[in-house]
Amino acid sequence: MIKAVFFDVDHTLFSHRLNAIPESAKKAIQILQKKGIYVFLATGRHRIEIEQLPMEEITFDGYITLSGQLCLDKNYRILYENSIHPHDIEILRNEFEKKEIPVFFIEENALYTNKHTKELEKVQASVSSEMPPIRELSDNKVYQVTLFTSREEVNKIVSNLIYSKCTGWNAFGSDVISSSGGKAKGIEHMLQHYGIKKEETMAFGDGENDIDMLEYCQIGIAMGNAHEGLKKVANYITEDIDNNGVELALKHFGLI
């Protein structure tokens, strides 16, 4: 019996065509919660970016943010954290300064960048997110670094890191996180906190950074528009979010 469902946000639960969660998905989530099933977000976004989206109608039971690096309960209290090792942060800083690559530095309560570019503005607009402020890298813990450059360039940079790994979310954006992190690790800690078994979980995703999540959960569902690598590990492939993919999959498995 499924007791918890984990949703990626962009292009999985949230439609950027509508700039909203489709009504069919909203109603489906309401039904799940009335049945006592936990509904969690599992996203690469920071809490600040989640709050920029018009999703106020739904109260989620918890948030796996920054691809599992910061896990929060419904009141945004930290349940688990996993920051990037300072050694790798220093290497990243040197690479960015040398190559003038635009990046986001993401802390517990802050999201900022080293520069603004037109390409970066387009990327942020495409996912309904605001441009973060320009700031110098602080001495605070950094949980995620987002690189905005080609995958080839990212791979060169990441090859110099010892304690970190990287996952891409589009052709221009890649997230660096702790090598021990990921959405699956975040889910593992959420399940421990809420007393839920791995066998009682379902996950929805569309991107490369959802692969470990779909592999970890009992039932992994890929959206119709999903990354091909994700479709290969999914138990079920549904329609995309704009074609009622969430509702159809939940009906298929008898949850609504």
TrEMBL record:
<dbReference type="InterPro" id="IPR006379">
    <property type="entry name" value="HAD-SF_hydro_IIB"/>
</dbReference>
<dbReference type="InterPro" id="IPR023214">
    <property type="entry name" value="HAD_sf"/>
</dbReference>
<dbReference type="GO" id="GO:0016791">
    <property type="term" value="F:phosphatase activity"/>
</dbReference>
<dbReference type="InterPro" id="IPR036412">
    <property type="entry name" value="HAD-like_sf"/>
</dbReference>
<dbReference type="InterPro" id="IPR000150">
    <property type="entry name" value="Cof"/>
</dbReference>
<dbReference type="GO" id="GO:0000287">
    <property type="term" value="F:magnesium ion binding"/>
</dbReference>
<dbReference type="Pfam" id="PF08282">
    <property type="entry name" value="Hydrolase_3"/>
</dbReference>
<protein>
    <submittedName>
        <fullName>Hydrolase</fullName>
    </submittedName>
</protein>
<keyword id="KW-0378">Hydrolase</keyword>
<dbReference type="GO" id="GO:0005829">
    <property type="term" value="C:cytosol"/>
</dbReference>
